[in-house]
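Box S1 | Example of a co-folding query
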Amino acid sequence: MAPLQKTYGTVGQQQQQQPSTTPNNEGGVSFSSFLPSWKVITAITITGLLTASTVFALPYHVPPTLSRTLSNGTHEYHPTVIMISLDGTVNDDLDLSITPHLSSIADHGVRAQWLTPSFPPITFPNHWSLVTGLYPESHGIIYNVFYDPVMNDTFNYKDPSHSHDKKWWGGEPIWNTAVRQNRTSGVIMWPGCSTVFDGDLKPTIEVPYNDDMTHEEKMALTLEWLDMPIGERPEFIAVYIPQIDQAGHRYGPYAKQTLDTLHSVDASVGQLLEGLAARHLDDIVNVIVVSDHGMSATSKSRLILYDDELTPNELSMIDRIEGYPLLSIWPVHEEYTEPLYQAFLRLQKVHPEFQVYKRDQIPERYHFQDHVRIPPLLVVPDAGWLMGTHDEYPDLDAPLSPRGTHGYDNLHPESRAIFVASGPFFEKHYGSGSMLKPFWNIEVHNLVADILDIEPAPNNGTLKGRFEKDE
Ligand SMILES: [Zn+2]
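Box S1 (continued) | Returned holo structure for zinc ion
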């Protein structure tokens, strides 16, 4: 996405964005066409093109915060969205009859055949894509750990004091888009939620990441927030739940322990739905449940030890490797890119189960080329394959770890994420029990903005928050 990348080229500099009017290569829509009619008209007013005769034809301009309130019988509410991420939940798991409450959301609302993660289907890039509507090449969070050659600095998601710095994070998360438009937001542990942006923009309420809070406690806190008075009560709530991903890595995506974890998290979603019903909020609050990516099972039979083929001289040309299970390679010198590329082509003759690209060869459909943080060489193993050296796998008789992983081709069926949602917005636009055609997670920002009745931040989405039904 060249136009947006240029806009967000210097990550962390949240300048006033001028939306691109260049149609994107999805054959999509320009940003100006996203604007609701009153916003277009406001823009026209500002440019002084309004004539007296058109004034009377204008709809009355209602500021978003006053647009409408809803009542549950005792209290007033603004349109409200709760978005929950179940990290690492595989789309096919919704068909295993172990998630009755997620099924209930789909039955009363909508389900996407699947949600396509952005490339690479890794946690931090995709959580940031879900809330900003930007591809990782546009927002700059390209992996969980990455080097920035301009800053000469490394982002590491496990180092909060450093990774929370706004300099890393491009784009605007929907919780700040809301706050900027006088709305309120509350975020529980979603990646990026502890970063404070220019203008002191941050969620109205935020719970930083910690390992101790259970998913039941997160649902209970969400309900507590809904009991706050209007004006203080968050109208956009994001909740991050890591346990299914952790189990998937440890035991594998199809292991009983992983599916038990999913079942238990589903029960806590049920607890939330029960709390909404008890408060008569079914017709007021919209609930969206997503995952960031799927998960593939690993196996010793799908392990490539690349130092069997690459020579010690070739291996010494590698400075650092990022993006596990990808091999995203920074060579010691830029001119080592070609010999390393040739070395992996040679390896491919023995082990064809991966693709190798120089940066400018990375397929367009990945939208993963145009950022200084993307290294010169990218090796993409086939789904479920691991690549490493004998040093990394010293005992081939030992049990393989991890048993599950993700980060492969984002279009592979095992990479698919989940999307289920219910509430008045979905009832109105799609009807109960609708199946939606698959869409990319960069479309979610516009969807949430649409429900909250706020103007979205500039983003890569093209569907304007409207999805096609699969009929
Ligand atoms: Zn994840």
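The chain has a mean pLDDT of 87. The two ends are 31 Å apart (CA to CA).
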